[in-house]
Specification:
The structure is a homodimer. Chain A is an all-alpha fold. Chain A has seven helices and no strands. Chain A starts with a helix and ends in a 5-residue tail after the last helix.
């Protein structure tokens, strides 16, 4: 199995696994959950950024990196249910329709993000501030890669 | 140091650690971040519930439990900044003013929740569905304990 295919399956596995539950999920709930996940990651990315640019606290960085990794590993692909290319959660979704059609491209950015988030958690646990700073840059690139391709400008 | 005091300090440690950053945080952002954290936990608690009541998928439960634990360990106490007893994030906050004054009580429910969330992640990693079901019940009780004391009915 090709790597891109494997990742795509991993990312979207929940839609199969929890089929019944997800069939019952409303579009607005799916959008609300995914917006919540991204927003909570943003808070934690902000904490890592503040630490690498200022006073470094190992425990805070490790905790924040664990949040980002856990959310990355949570199978958010399952929240991109049919019909959720448009709609309102906390606010109107910013997703581009391409996310629902460009499966190979989505698999690629999703894999890059997951790998970088897990590596971030691993590095953060060591407390090596320089390594964290470097990995934070790489992780941010993977966020941006997805945003550039699949997210509209914020409303 | 008494246990309640220790937990309180742990839960609210970020407000000291990241003082500068947090001083710059707007009330509406703090409320938005915490509402996002709780909402994303709710999605993951829902997945665990669906698994213990239906077809059990070890990996999905472990991933969901890791999210709940990581968010529990993220230091959300830092998001209860002065002035955020009222205000609007994604929606008007449901927090009761008592959360800002009853430090001992808050420390107690926070410690119980953190302990239960970490135990949930530990049990979920074993794949023991019966143990997960039991621990899920205990974890839910700790959510409810805080909601009962410190959260208004949903608007």
């Amino acid at each position: 199995m090709k790597k891109t295919t494997k990742t795509l399956l991993a990312g979207f596995a929940l839609s199969v696994v929890a089929g019944t539950t997800l069939a019952q999920m409303k579009v607005e709930d799916a959008i609300t959950f995914r917006q919540s996940g991204y927003k909570f990651m943003a808070w934690n990315m902000g904490k890592i950024k503040a630490n690498v640019e200022g006073q470094y606290n190992k425990d805070q960085v490790a905790a924040a990196a664990n949040v980002v990794a856990a959310i990355a590993n949570s199978g958010m692909g399952a929240l991109y249910i049919p019909g959720s290319d448009k709609g309102k959660g906390w606010h109107e979704t910013n997703v581009k329709p391409e996310l629902f059609t460009d499966k190979e491209g989505v698999g690629k950015v999703a894999r890059a993000f997951n790998d970088a988030a897990n590596e971030m958690a691993r590095v953060a646990a060591t407390g090596d501030a320089a390594a964290v700073k470097a990995q934070f840059g790489k992780l941010g690139e993977t966020c941006k890669a997805c945003h550039d391709k699949y997210r509209k400008e914020e409303h």
